[in-house]
Design goal:
By secondary structure, this protein is α+β, with helices and mostly antiparallel strands. The chain folds into two domains: 2-216, Thymidylate synthase/dCMP hydroxymethylase domain (Thymidylate Synthase, Chain A); 235-312. The chain has helices spanning 2-9, 49-61, 66-72, 91-96, 105-115, 169-188, 209-217, 235-249, 257-262, 267-283, 290-294, 298-307, 309-312; strands at residues 13-15, 22-32, 123-125, 143-151, 154-165, 191-205. Helix 2 (49-61) packs across helix 6, helix 2 (49-61) crosses helix 10 and helix 8 (235-249) runs parallel beside helix 10 (267-283). It binds 5-(hydroxymethyl)cytidine 5'-(dihydrogen phosphate). 5-(hydroxymethyl)cytidine 5'-(dihydrogen phosphate) (5HM) is lined by residues 17-18, 88-89, 140-143, 163-165, 169, 173.
Length: 316
């Protein structure tokens, strides 16, 4: 919210990159002391917590398919040239299968930090120079890379972006990047440190101006604690969650609370699966299973009722 305020009221430039009117500041950075607390609580800037988890999971899957993301966001096909894959935005593909050699940068970073905890080489490169050689590329990575630092025995992370939308993109980018940071910290068995966000151009599109001014006037009163990922290696849980997420998305199964308990996922990951199951009901326009909804932790109930009041604020 502070960044949004800063760009909206103190922009240095008003311009039209690719024809879109916007206001911007250059060389913007901020840090978040506790990156496990990665969400914005605003009645007017409603976050879609299900999209946020889905996008983070999509990155962790290393996948670049459009059908995954367009299930969670109908605007996604606008960014795909061939209607099948996403190129720039598919950060997971870059992290886990970079370039022709299909480099697994996740394992590389872990290895570098295990061998030299003070290293300043633990970088995951995301932007690829080839992206700019494609004429009229609809989807050029906005993120250049992520860098990890173990300092005082905690895992800090810096993200580098060429461009970030201070109203829209920032919300999901901070969410996914700090999830990546938290998961890497769990992998390395150390505490999460600080998160640093650094951006070439931070901007707001003129078409969002009215909405942005409402959001900035809106007092924030709520303050939940965002749940923390369990300690230890979470990859078995994540792989299992991905399997069920895919079945729900393809409409190959439905899941009530008991079937979610039966998966053997730990409570943190069960909650996320419950969110995906509720999203399936919303997407396929089925009645919401309120027994399942009731098992969600209060923070997730809050996000869902704020985002989909017509669906979720009905008499039971
Ligand atoms: O013209 P350009 O390629 O920079 O347009 C992409 C727009 O999406 C920019 O406003 C950029 O800031 C925003 N964006 C973002 O904020 C895009 C992505 C996808 O890589 C992202 N965050 N993750």
């Amino acid at each position: 919210m502070a960044v949004l305020h800063n760009i909206y009221y103190h922009a240095d430039f008003f311009n039209q990159p690719r024809g879109f009117n916007s206001r911007e500041r250059l060389g913007v950075s901020f840090n978040i002391q506790d990156p496990t607390q990665r969400v914005v609580y605003s009645k007017t800037r409603k976050i879609n917590i299900i999209f946020n988890f889905a996008e983070a999971l999509w990155y962790l899957s290393g996948d670049n398919s459009l059908d995954y993301m367009s299930y969670y966001n109908q605007r996604m096909p606008n960014y795909s040239v061939d209607g099948k894959i996403l190129t720039g935005t598919a950060y997971g593909k870059k992290i886990f299968h970079f370039g022709e050699q299909q480099l697994d940068q996740w394992q590389r970073v872990k290895k570098i930090l295990s061998e030299d905890p003070d290293s300043k080489r633990a970088v995951m490169q995301i932007f690829d120079a080839n992206e700019l050689t494609i004429a009229d590329n609809l989807d050029v990575s906005c993120t250049l890379g992520l860098q990890f630092f173990i300092r005082n025995n905690r895992l800090n992370m810096v993200s580098y972006m060429r461009a970030n939308d201070a109203f829209r993109g920032i919300v999901s980018d901070v969410f996914s990047f700090t999830m990546i940071q938290e998961l890497m910290a769990r992998d390395l068995n150390i505490e999460v440190g600080e998160y640093y966000h650094t951006v070439g151009t931070m901007h707001i599109y003129q078409t969002d101006d009215t909405w942005v001014s409402h959001v900035l006037e809106d007092p924030r009163s709520l303050n939940f604690k965002f749940p923390m990922m369990p300690s230890g290696n979470n990859w078995d849980m994540i792989k299992k969650l991905m399997k069920y997420e895919k079945m729900l998305r393809k409409n190959e199964c439905t899941m009530d609370w008991q079937s979610i308990l039966d998966t053997g996922l730990s409570p943190y990951w069960q909650q996320i699966l419950a969110l995906f199951s509720i999203y399936q009901m919303i997407y396929f326009k089925r009645e919401v299973d309120y027994v399942l909804f009731d098992h969600l932790i209060p923070i997730y109930k809050y996000f869902l009722t704020n985002k989909w009041p017509q669906k979720l604020l009905v008499e039971k």
